[in-house]
Amino acid sequence: MRVLVIDDEKNICTAIQGILEDEGYQCSYRLSFEDGFKALQEEQFDVVFLDVWLPDKDGSEGLREIKRNMPELEVVMISGHSKIENAVDSIRWGAYDFLEKPLSLERIVTIVMRIQEKLKILEDLRESKFNLLKKYNLIGASRLLRNLKKKIEKVSPSNAWILIYGENGSGKEHAARLIHMLSKRAEAPFVEINCSSVPLEIIEGELFGCEKAETQKIGKIELANGGTLMLDEIGDLEQQMQAKLLKVLEGGLFTRVGGVENIRSDFRLISTTSKNLEVEVSSGSFREDLYYRINVIPIEIPPLRERPEDIPLLAMHFLEETCFENALTRKVITPELMQLLVRFKWPGNVRQLRHVVERLAVLSETETLSIGDLPDYFSHEDSAANEIPIESLDMHSPLKDARDEFEKQYIIKALTAANWNVSKASRLLDIERSYLHKKMKNYNLEKPTQ
Ligand SMILES: Nc1ncnc2c1ncn2[C@@H]1O[C@H](COP(=O)(O)OP(=O)(O)OP(=O)(O)O)[C@@H](O)[C@H]1O
Ligand SMILES: [Mg+2]
Question: 344 and 281: one domain?
Answer without folding.
Answer: no
